[in-house]
Design brief:
Layout lengths: L10 E7 L7 H11 L4 E7 L3 H11 L3 E4 L13 E2 L1 H6 L4 E5 L2 E5 L2 H10 L8 E5 L3 H12 L3 E6 L2 H11 L3 E3 L8 E6 L22 E6 L8 H8 L3 E3 L2 H16 L5 H20 L1
Parallel strand pairs: 1-2, 1-3, 4-6, 7-8, 7-10, 8-9, 10-11, 11-12
Antiparallel strand pairs: 3-5, 5-6
Helix pairs in contact: 1-8, 1-9, 4-5, 4-8, 8-9
């Protein structure tokens, strides 16, 4: 929506997190609002205090919000309701404000399942999942729901062991990743995300043990992890499809309307390609 079109009846949506400057969520959701002719706008909000942000959402009657790092689990204690799937996952990435109540959802798991299934079936396949945060919870839930066999790998044993008990799957500390192999490695950590594009969550030598490597990061399009994976013959999958699919589910939860998914994906790819060209100059 263009600024000149915003008026007193414009519905406000947005994303809260820290950081948020890298997010492509405003791009895809504002595109969808324009295509569907909706009087709505989606804005990024850099937040330090999640409890205070919830007060603001209520006061300004913001209709829906995306929730990103580091608030996907903390926010649960400040909202009124949480749907059964998000409760099972233990993290939310979406809230909806209706009739003075804030309800939490999780669409991340749908995004990751759909993006993986475009490359390989999940059932009976072995997945090594890096990380133990909110995104990892959604990935583990999706893999288990579709019959996959995940293994958790995390730098901090306490968090990894807790997820291992919750999702009933094995845990290994990061320093033992050399001993693991599987069909697909999934990075759910922010390591390698813009602007820290020269970092990777694991040494390149371990990637030859996986046929597929998925990085849920989408900025940059090809992280150092994915570049190293390709060098070792693995199929590298970036986080664009997961991001767009989860965003489309958010849009439907807020509006009840079908967004233009392919246009959203193309817009993200175009914008990231432009950024990549600029960063190389």
């Amino acid at each position: 929506m263009f600024t000149s079109e915003i008026d007193a009846k414009t519905q406000i949506y947005g994303i809260i997190g820290n950081p948020v400057e890298h997010s492509m969520s405003p791009l895809i959701h504002n595109l969808a609002f324009r295509r569907l002719g909706m009087n709505a706008v989606y804005l990024p909000f850099l937040v330090q205090d999640i409890k205070g942000a919830i007060y603001g959402i209520r006061a300004f009657q913001i209709r829906g919000m995306s929730i990103t790092i580091p608030f996907k689990t903390e926010i649960i204690k400040y909202i009124d309701e949480i749907d059964d799937t998000a409760r099972a996952i233990g993290a939310i990435n979406t809230i909806r404000f209706t009739e003075d109540r804030i309800t939490g959802f999780n669409t991340d798991w749908l995004g990751v399942v759909r993006s993986i299934q475009e490359f390989l079936p999940i059932k009976d396949r072995k997945f090594v999942v890096l990380g133990a945060g909110g995104a990892a919870r959604a990935v583990l839930f999706g893999l288990k729901k579709e019959g996959g066999n995940p293994i958790i790998v995390n730098r901090t044993p306490a968090k990894g062991e807790m997820l291992s008990r919750e999702f009933e799957c094995p845990f290994f500390p990061l320093n033992q990743i050399d001993d693991l192999q599987g069909d697909c490695l999934i990075n759910t950590t922010p390591v390698g995300m813009f602007p820290d594009i020269d970092k990777s969550p694991v040494p390149g030598k371990v990637l030859s043990r996986f046929g597929f490597v998925l990085d849920i990061i989408y900025n940059p399009l090809k992280t150092k992890l994915l570049k190293e994976a390709e060098k070792r013959g693995a199929v590298a999958i970036n986080g664009v499809k997961m991001f767009v699919y989860q965003g489309a589910e958010q849009f439907k939860a807020w509006t009840g309307k079908e967004p233009p998914v392919k246009e959203m994906e193309n817009a993200v790819l175009k914008q990231l390609s432009i950024r990549s060209i600029k960063s190389e100059k």
